[in-house]
Amino acid sequence: MQSLSSRRIRHLTAVAAGVLSMSALAACGSSGPAGRGGGDGLEVWVYQDGSTVIQEEFVERFNESSDIDINLTQIPGENYQDRMRTAMGGSNAPDIFFNWGGGSISDFVEQDMLVDLTDIIAEEPGLNGAFIPSILEAGGIDGRIYGVPMRGVQPVILFYNQTLFEEAGVEPPVSWDDLMGLVDTFTERDITPAVLAGGDPWTELMWLEYLLDREGGAEVFARIRGGDSAAWGDPAVLAAAERVTELVDAGAFGNNYRSVRYTTDGASTFFAQGEAAMHLMGSWEYANQLAQQPEFTENDLAFAAFPAIEGGAGDPSAVVGNPTNYWSVHSDVEGERLDAAVEFLSLMASEEYAQALIDNGDVPTTANAEALLDSHSNPEFAHFQYDMVTGASDFTLSWDQALPASQSTPMMDNIEQLFGGDLSAQEFVDAMQDI
């Protein structure tokens, strides 16, 4: 557990400008998604958020020297996956697109819709050995690589308001009992213990992922991901679901969490305004807060690992989240256009790109990342995050990205019902075994 130092926040103007552009669908050189019918250029789709300013900058750099231009289209976050999946099934699929690796692209791999980048990366000097191996492999399918890392590492972190903690005379939790004690402490002080964007069920998933990991160890979900549906009946799944119910019933998330959204910055703003003491969220929350609430980020925002569960089989060093995001290439991209695509992907391995990620508050996935961390706007947070990832006994990919859509969609529905009280812990387990 560590807190943010009061270092001067740099590059804020550039980051804030990127965030402000998120209010509408934006494109660099285009009025909207054109797909593979856009001529000799390359159509690139990206999830629109506070980091998109970096992709804009490097697309512009690429276009200054390339005979084949890239047209960057930004898709608002809440619509990205649906639009991407719909487009990939038609004639307007992007040539290169942002994804989470693993299950998020497994259907495309099965249908031979993606370029296998394994040999290309091995043969390309700018890509071979450029990334942390475990991160590169995490985005693959069956030992083959279909994506190049293009953003920072993204473990899920327990952020907390250090000012509220100091005023209450408490410390970040290192055990389940500590966590439940904090729920009581902050409830008594009329402060929501942990903000939860229940309007976006993937934020609820983060809690269940860590609870299962701490209860049963990473191998339980590894069995599920490997196709063993019976693993949903593991006792650790029921125990994790019961702890979810315990948190909800104790008021850990307040009374109105079902109406709070993350994609509209509702949860982050609520947290930054001092209305909640904790926020379990991906590491990108730091960059979001840096852009949206710089004073809160500098003075109040702190961070810790998710607590251990006494008697649980899980290793407390294990993390969940998204190892990073990836660029994948459509299999229709060939010849000179594929050469240009590889040239663009190679920029993701450059020191300049890694430095841009750091300036945005992220921690790069490149092999040289550690040497650059002291230039982060908060080196303490950067080293905490880097050490968290490199020292983890396991890094479990977010379940909704690790599983194919045919499983992840009903799973998310069941998780929403579990947190909403419409399914008991046992009913949740039964429903998951039926998928």
Automatic annotation (TrEMBL):
<dbReference type="InterPro" id="IPR050490">
    <property type="entry name" value="Bact_solute-bd_prot1"/>
</dbReference>
<keyword id="KW-0732">Signal</keyword>
<protein>
    <submittedName>
        <fullName>Extracellular solute-binding protein</fullName>
    </submittedName>
</protein>
<feature type="signal peptide">
    <location>
        <begin position="1"/>
        <end position="26"/>
    </location>
</feature>
<dbReference type="Pfam" id="PF01547">
    <property type="entry name" value="SBP_bac_1"/>
</dbReference>
<dbReference type="InterPro" id="IPR006059">
    <property type="entry name" value="SBP"/>
</dbReference>
